[in-house]
Here is the input.
Amino acid sequence: MTSVSVFDLGRALAEIRGELDARWRAILESKQFVGGPEVGEFERAFAGYLDAPDCVGVGNGTDALILALKALGAGPGDEVVVPAFTFAATAATVEWVGARPVFADVESATLNLDPERLEAAITDRTVGAIGVHLYGQPCDLDRIPEICKRAELWLIEDAAQAHGARFGDRRVGSFGDLATWSFYPSKNLGCFGDGGAVTGRSLELLERVRLLANHGAKTRYEHLEIGINSRLDSFQAAVLNCRLPLLDKKNERRGKIAGQYREAFTGLDGLACLAIDERSRGVFHQMTVTTSRRDELQAFLAERGIGSTVHYPAALPDQAAFARFAEEASDFPVALRAASEVLCLPMFPELTAAELDATIAAVREFF
Ligand SMILES: Cc1ncc(COP(=O)(O)O)c(C=O)c1O
Here is the structure.
């Protein structure tokens, strides 16, 4: 029996081990543990990759959201529309800066923010929206920016799961006012600890993010604003410098794996794959299927040594921390249903053909 992990970082590490050892040794020798050439090199390279004017490396994807929200001026009295089905940080950070997260349901086909629900959630207190590219698939980057523009709202792209994804001929991250990134180890572009970044189209806004991430100081001990300390670590930047050049190839491999899963599952009664927006080229951070027999399927796979995960087991309005921001969790039927039906199958570029075949065979056997 082939057992299959849902994710295996060891294989990615093995590929870059030689280069990473050299980079980490150089950091140890230079003793530049904070900032330094690795961080600058990564910020320039990632900005170049995204065709963005700058990239600000920060501590993690949650800080990236907080800093982006702060730089855009979100605060008490403001409302920010967020999808009802996403990782908690997308909504929690809105509250953390003193504003109110307002949930909008997601589209059933893709589980990304539903533009119509976004539009319906806008009030005269709304200042902006956060669009998430869930599972690596871009949200509707035709309609969402257009709705925000019409209502004079800013837009943050939470691109934590979508490094390298495209919508039309542009990479995600260039459609909103700012884009936030997480480099948590399991992400498509991940480091070996915590890391994050903010990118965007306006140098002025990015300069503000950089200032806020550095205690509001442009030069040492000259504090222009109240800020925090949120920095991309040199050792993590070195990992990202090794991994960024491989990203497109790795995303391509994810696409091939997803294609094989999707083909093998076509016509299986009781199992569905999420729809792919024809206008986009997503990067399959996760291979998500939906079934009303989700828990049974997960247990069946586990008995055969095949890992799977549930992202996410609850819609945010249905969680204790967020319930006060929604009148009724039942106002978000698509998100609620997704929480009971989604299952993420093994998906990482180094997954072998035998592991993929074993997973497909087990899923087919179940149905
Ligand atoms: C959609 C989304 N937003 C934000 C974050 C937060 O990133 P981090 O874990 O680096 O703080 C994550 C990470 O899981 C995420 O998936």
In short: The mean pLDDT is 97. The first helix runs from residue 9 to 30. The domain at 247-366 is CATH 3.90.1150.10 (Aspartate Aminotransferase, domain 1).
